[in-house]
Write a structure and sequence with these properties.
Layout (H helix, E strand, L loop, with lengths): L1 H27 L1 H12 L1 H24 L11 H7 L3 H17 L3 H15 L3 E2 L2 E2 L9 H20 L14 H4 L2 H21 L5 H15 L3 H16 L4 H25 L10 H6 L9 H9 L4 H15 L4 H6 L9 H20 L17 H7 L3 H41 L5
Antiparallel strand pairs: 1-2
Helix pairs in contact: 1-12, 2-5, 2-12, 3-4, 5-6, 5-7, 6-7, 6-9, 11-12, 11-17, 14-15, 14-19, 17-19
Length: 434
């Protein structure tokens, strides 16, 4: 076992040297950072929609099974759901353009207004037939983030290099408003012309439908057991070498996961069945049950440790782990660069996450569709699935995580004991008498 740990330690040091700089750059990359922070900003919108969705599901269940509340027209609860999940593209345009404008120093309010306008054109939100509300939902989400970034960049370049139209005899306070005209008109013409071309040459009618239709295979391929394993594996590897794995990957993963969530909600309120599993709910409440790497299992083991410092870390980490906060146990035990815990943390975690993906895929537990943000365990899991069977799932996964960590944790505990004994022996040899 020592040979294995020695080999792993050398390999991990090389991996850390190779990927840490790249991961650091990805985390700070301006476009990915704007997307990541923008999607975090729309979390309250998802919460509001989820709140009314829960009401709708509960009352619908009571009506269908007990005949109560039949005088209530439940479709009224669909309105706030549609105003949130049904408008995701617009909320994404607002949040991402705000974050990106703030990051690169572009004018914020003009950037937001311009992005909403150009996104509306690009996704075909307004057509000659009137307002197409369905185009504002999750199907336009991926295009919304691209067009928002493009709009803010164009607006910033035009402002920075003074390429915007100059208007004479206009009060100074109105100059910034008029500076929007040239870049936004040009971008709008570009997307209108592109929509027209797409409508005439293809079966789609706008940029959003064209990209969605041709990239759909790629979008679906994210929600597979292989991709779940790869994403969680990379997240754990980054955490292990001291980099926030969630922060690095969120810019890539959240747009797809949020798209899946919007599609599930749309299917549910229209009488269909949710089909996508890898939503933000799955990533937060199941793949990261009790924290990244199922850290709650290590908290339990630490609580029963005979080593004082490890037991102390367990005590201070128990409350944070209920809210899936990883940092106290991650850096307190520590898990980062702890070669004894590499195998269960980096390799075991994606295996358990993938196992849960199959549990949802095979229908043993309802797919998580309700977003409840930072609710504690098990409330988050119960509300997100609206299924009592999820309690059996998380108990089972938690026990498996404890079993997975146990032999490696005991080896680590033994190493800490030996280290402490060496220190005690060193001071004993000094024969100090205070």
């Amino acid at each position: 076992m020592k040979l294995l740990y020695s080999y792993l330690e050398k390999r991990i040091t090389k991996i850390q040297k190779a990927i840490a700089p790249m991961a650091g750059k990805l985390e700070k990359q301006k476009y990915l950072a704007s997307i990541k922070n923008g999607f975090k900003d729309i979390t309250p919108v998802l919460l509001i929609g989820s709140f009314f969705l829960v009401f709708y599901i509960i009352l619908q269940y009571i009506q269908q099974n007990y005949g109560s509340f039949r005088q209530i027209d439940l479709t009224i609860f669909k309105i706030p759901v549609q105003l949130t999940f049904g408008m995701l593209s617009i909320y994404a345009a607002i949040a991402i353009s705000y974050r990106h404008a703030k990051r690169i120093g572009a004018p914020i309010i003009p950037s937001i207004f311009s992005s909403v306008f150009t996104v509306g054109v690009a996704i075909g939100g307004i057509t000659t037939n009137g307002i197409e509300f369905e185009n504002f939902n999750s199907e336009g989400l991926l295009v919304a983030l691209i067009v928002s970034l493009l709009t803010v960049e164009v607006l910033n370049k035009c402002t920075k290099y003074n390429l915007t139209a100059k208007f004479k005899n206009i009060p100074e306070g109105s100059v910034h408003t008029f500076q929007l005209i040239m870049p936004i008109v040009l971008l709008s013409f570009l997307f209108l012309a592109t929509n027209l071309l797409i409508e005439r040459k293809t079966e789609q009618s706008n940029v959003s439908e064209f990209i969605f239709g041709h990239l759909f295979w790629g979008i679906e391929s994210i929600d597979t057991p292989v991709m779940v394993f790869i994403i969680v594996f990379l997240e754990m590897l980054f955490w292990f070498i001291g980099i926030n794995g969630y922060a690095v990957l969120a810019g890539f993963v959240l747009p797809f996961a949020t798209f899946y969530l919007g599609e599930n909600i749309s299917a549910l309120i229209n009488g269909g069945q949710p089909e996508y599993i890898f939503t933000p709910n799955f990533w937060d409440y199941f793949a990261s049950l009790s924290g990244a790497g199922f850290a709650g299992a290590l908290v339990i083991l630490a609580l029963f440790s005979k080593v004082k410092e490890i037991k102390s870390v367990g005590k201070t980490s128990i409350i944070p782990s209920l809210f899936s906060i990883t940092e106290p146990i991650l850096y307190g035990l520590p898990i980062t660069f702890n070669i004894y815990l590499f195998i269960p943390f980096v390799i075991g975690t994606p295996i358990l996450a993938t196992l849960q993906w199959y549990v949802f895929k095979w229908g043993f537990v309802n797919i998580p569709v309700v977003h409840v943000a930072d609710a504690p365990i098990p409330i988050a899991q119960l509300l997100s699935t609206m299924d009592w069977r999820v309690l059996l799932l998380i108990i089972g996964v938690f026990l498996l995580a404890i079993l997975m960590y146990y032999p490696f944790f005991k080896l680590y505990e033994k190493s800490v004991e030996q280290q402490n004994n060496k220190v005690d022996d060193k001071y004993a040899d000094l024969d100090l008498d205070f």
